[in-house]
Amino acid sequence: MLPTLQSRPLLAALVALLWIALVLYGFSACWWLFETLVLARGRERFDDPDDFRWSLDDVQVRVLTVDAEAVVQGTVDALPDAVTDVHVIAERDIDVDGAAVHAVPEAFDCEATNKGRALEWARRNVPCDREYVLYLDEDTLVAGLTGMPDADVVQFTEKPLFTGSRLTYLCELFRIGYQFEQLGFHRLRYPLYAWGGGVAIRHDLEDAISWDVQTITEDTNFVWRAARERSISYRLVDARFRNQAPPSLWAMLKQRRRWISGTMRDGASLPLRYRPLAFTRVVAWGFSPFVPVLVVGAYAFPGSAPTLDLYAAISTALLGILFVYTLAGLLAYRKHPLLWPIFLLLTPLAVVLHALGAMWGLVRPVETFEVTEKVPPAAVERANASLDEGSIASHDGTERLARESADDFEWAPFDD
């Protein structure tokens, strides 16, 4: 007969830790399912230009960069012709055709630093008589941009392009699958994060909230402060703006580290009822590679503790959620079903690599903003077989960048 847990304190402590880890991960996974299957139901789809209240005449575009002239030129070239009020906010003087370039003066001082400092300088010094300011990262190629729904914050979804690293592309596909939860954010008082590479903010809201705070995740921090100070409306447009997957694994790890560090530090902006949710999501992300280990451990010692059989069943079910994230990413990228087994088999690798930077940020948070490396448009075109030379410069941002129809499948495993 097996000894009781009371007579084996070390085993009891181990079992307790296993259950705590499982509860944290399980809460995050179940919340994702609730967002995607329940909260997302009945959302506005914005599939037609007639769905938008505001036209592109009501939009000013601001592109943030340090000095990536060639990359920014591709971003500006890809904007629809109807967007006529375009500004580039840079740290150094650069030449960009089709946009007014503003270099943030070295003497400008405010509480915000790095990208936040540039955002705040632009808010104070770049005139705007439009309803919305659409912020783009230096590498954001807009797609399906035909107007704006009536909301204080309009978030556009993303779909990173292959830039040469198959590992980072795999991780981005997994991440975009997880981001299906954004479809339910309009039901939340506090959207759980924002992507500053494609977010439109009502101009008077921006002036009221400002960017003048110390943070390294300016986009999410702004949305959280805006939601705290007033009841904001939020809409998600599933246009799949094309940005770049990090060109190297090292660049991706540093990017993930910054994201998780900023989220942890800005958590105080959330009300108490949201903090447990934000905390468990962060922990679940950083330590998700240990979920398979927990499953193996539970099956390796059958009957060694009264609750481990139940634990094994639950942990196995939750392990399957990781593959659901990959499947959602495959749907977002429209990969052909014949390619799905390849990516599903690679899910454990994607989970580990995607989480390493987050784990790094949890153990050793970063304090300063560092721009993720980008490559010029010509390099993106060479990496993707579906893009000819000059495709980005000739792209009309009201249309898709690659593949004429959203219903077409993509046969290339690691580019599109």
Molecular structure report:
The protein has one domain. 43% of the residues lie in helices and 10% in strands. The chain contains 13 helices and 7 strands. The chain has helices spanning 9-39, 69-77, 114-125, 166-178, 203-209, 218-229, 249-265, 275-286, 290-300, 308-333, 340-345, 347-363, 377-383; strands spanning 59-64, 86-90, 100-103, 132-137, 153-158, 198-202, 234-241. Strands 3-2-1-4-6-5-7 form a 7-stranded mixed β-sheet. The longest helix has 31 residues, at 9-39. The chain is globular, with a radius of gyration of 22 Å.
Keyphrases for this structure?
globular, 416 residues, seven-stranded mixed sheet, alpha/beta, 7 strands
Give a quick rundown of the structure:
The chain is of the alpha/beta class and 416 residues long.
Topology of this structure?
Layout: H1 9-39, E1 59-64, H2 69-77, E2 86-90, E3 100-103, H3 114-125, E4 132-137, E5 153-158, H4 166-178, E6 198-202, H5 203-209, H6 218-229, E7 234-241, H7 249-265, H8 275-286, H9 290-300, H10 308-333, H11 340-345, H12 347-363, H13 377-383
Parallel strand pairs: 1-2, 1-4, 2-3, 5-7
Antiparallel strand pairs: 4-6, 5-6
Helix pairs in contact: 1-8, 1-10, 4-10, 4-12, 7-12, 8-12, 9-10
